[in-house]
Amino acid sequence: MQPVDRVLELKSELGKRLVILGHHYQRDEVIQVSDFRGDSLKLVFDAVKSREAEYIVFCGVHFMAETAAILAQPGQRVFLPDLDAGCPLADMADLTDVEQVWGQLGEVLDVEDEVTPITYVNSTASLKAFCGRHNGLVCTSSNAEKMLTWAFEQRPYVFFFPDQHLGRNTGKKMGIPLDEMLLWDPKLIRGGFETEAIRDARIFLWRGWCNVHQVFTVEDVIRWRSQEPDVRVIVHPECSMEVVDQADEAGSTSFIIQQIEASPAGSKWTVGTEFNLVNRLDQENPDKQIVLLSSTTASCHDMNLITLQKVERILEGLAAGKSINQITVPADTARDARIALERMLEVSK
Ligand code: SF4
C-alpha cells in the first residue's frame, strides 16, 4: 500500500479525533493529506477550534508545534512528525542571550517602563514567555506593524527579535529612520553602541535572519524586470530591506497568496518566498505566470524534513494508542507565553 493510501486509511479510522495541519511551505504530498493549510498561527487556531480533535499533527517546524501546544484546549495533544524539523531563525535567539541584552539595555534605560519586547512568532516558547513576563507580545509577519504601533503607544522603545529583517522592514514602513533602528551585536559591549545612541534609538534589532529568505537579491529583481518588463515582484518581509524596497509588494504568505489569486488572468509574478509555496501557487493558478524570484532554489530544509512516511508513523502510533513525537511545553513557560500570544490577539481585534 502506498503511504498516501495508508495515511488516508488511518485518518478515516481516527476520524474527528485527528487533525493534520499543513504549513504553506510543506511538500505537496503532505499538503494533500492535511485538513487545514495556512501559516503557523492560522493553523493553530484551525486546530484549537476543532474541539473534537484530540490529536493535532503539525506538519511544520518545532516552534509551530510548540505554539499549538501552548494554545491547545485541555485534552488536545500536539505531534511533530520529525523532531529535527527546527527553524534556524528561531534558534538564533535563546533565552539566556535575550536576557543578557535586556540587562545591558537596563544599564541605560528603565527597561520595564520604557522598552516593549516583541518576538516574532518564529521563536522558541521561552522567548514568547519572556515577552509575556515583560509586558511584551508576539507578532506575525501579517500583524507586525499593528503590534509595533501598539508597542509605541505604551513605551518609547521596542526590543525586536529574532528576525532583524521583519523588524527593520516594518519599522521603515512606519517611517522610523534607519539610524533609530540599532542592530545589536551581542559580542560587543552594549551591542556596540554609546549610551547616547541607545537613548536616541527606537528599535533594538536582534541579529537574526531566515537563510531561505536571504537567498533573494536585488540582482534577482533587476534580472526579472529586464527579462519580463510587466512582471510584478512580491516578497516576504523576512527578505532583506534592499529586496523589499525594490519589490512591488511585500507581505506575509497569506498576503502573497491573496494578491496573486486576486490578480487578473495573464498576470506575471516573481515571488520571493519558500519554493514549495511558489511552486504550488504556480500549479494552482494555471492562467498566470508565477516563478521563484531566485535562480537558486529557496527551499527550507527543515520544512522538507516532513514526509508522508513520517506522518504515517505518527498516525500508526496514535491508532495503536502510542504517542510518538508529542510536543510539550513546561507549564510555567506555557502560561507566560500564552500571555504574550493573548496580548497579540487582543491588540489584533
Ligand atoms: S523558511 Fe525560514 S523562518 Fe520559515 S521555518 Fe524555514 S528557516 Fe524558519
Average pLDDT figure: 96
Element-by-element helix/strand order: HEHEHEHEHHEHEHEHEHEHEHEHEHEHEH
Portion in helices: 40-55%
Total count of strands: 14
In spatial order, strands of the major sheet run: 2-1-3-4-14
Output the radius of gyration: 21 Å
Question: Which overall shape is indicated by the principal axes computed on the Cα atoms?
Answer: globular
Return the structural class.
alpha/beta
Query: Can you summarize the main beta sheet?
Result: 5 strands, mixed
For the record, give the distance between the C-alpha atoms at the N and C termini, rounded to a whole number.
47 Å
Task: List low-confidence stretches.
Answer: none
List the keywords.
15% strand; alpha/beta; globular; binds iron/sulfur cluster; five-stranded parallel beta sheet; five-stranded mixed beta sheet; 349 residues
Helix and strand topology:
Blueprint: H1 3-14, E1 18-23, H2 28-31, E2 36-38, H3 40-49, E3 55-59, H4 62-71, E4 77-79, H5 95-106, H6 111-114, E5 115-120, H7 125-133, E6 137-139, H8 144-154, E7 157-161, H9 164-173, E8 181-183, H10 195-200, E9 203-205, H11 218-227, E10 232-235, H12 241-246, E11 249-250, H13 253-262, E12 268-272, H14 275-284, E13 289-292, H15 308-319, E14 326-327, H16 331-348
Helix pairs in contact: 1-15, 3-4, 7-16
The chain binds iron/sulfur cluster.
Residues 25, 61, 87-89, 122, 210, 212, 274, 300, 302-303 line the site of iron/sulfur cluster.
